[in-house]
Specification:
5-stranded mixed β-sheet, globular, alpha/beta, about 35% helix, single chain
Length: about 230
Amino acid sequence: MKILGIESAGITASCAISEDKTLLCEYTQNHKKTHSEKLMPLIVKAMEDREIELKDIEVIAVSRGPGSYTGLRIGAAIAKGLAQAADIPIIAVPTMQALAANVFDSNRYIVPILDAKAGRVYSGIYKWENDNLITVKEQFPTDIYELADIIKSLDKECVLNGDGSVNYREILENSVNNITFAPEKYNILNASSVNYVGFQLIKENKMISCYEFSPEYLRASQAERMSDVK
């Protein structure tokens, strides 16, 4: 099964093509949030370089959020448009689960942290069982201090990754003992991890139509939050 993966939840614009669990190609640009300009050309190049046409793709895996509102909307629009054109299903991949999939450690929990600014973060808790990434706690919005308390309450050590683990490292190191930080290269959102988790979800029969898919923001936009203050 050929899977086209799309990641646009953060600063990276990334696409990947996989055959089941086997990665065929991946193109990622980690430069600004210019997904409207960069993402579709990356997809076209990936397909051209692998000599794959849209009719060869059987499912589109897309990062469903949380993350950048604009980035998620762009990724969703591209995924829905391609899926509708090819009459193929979508698999909506939780962004935090895909970020956790960057790290393999069968002995510790994986805790991805995505920085939502001003001390706010998105996170989730995961663990590996054989080749499957199991959800211990579904992705959720919180603040860095509450997250530190959650991590402290866990029954084994954790590996942290994502830009939030970098930006709030000092707070976490001063608050929690049972943690290890993943190397820098595992902190970046990418489409190959979206595809890996997507294939797992496909086997669980969680595919949906393009008409059913919408991004999951987990938190109101800044404009919505400001309107509530008035």
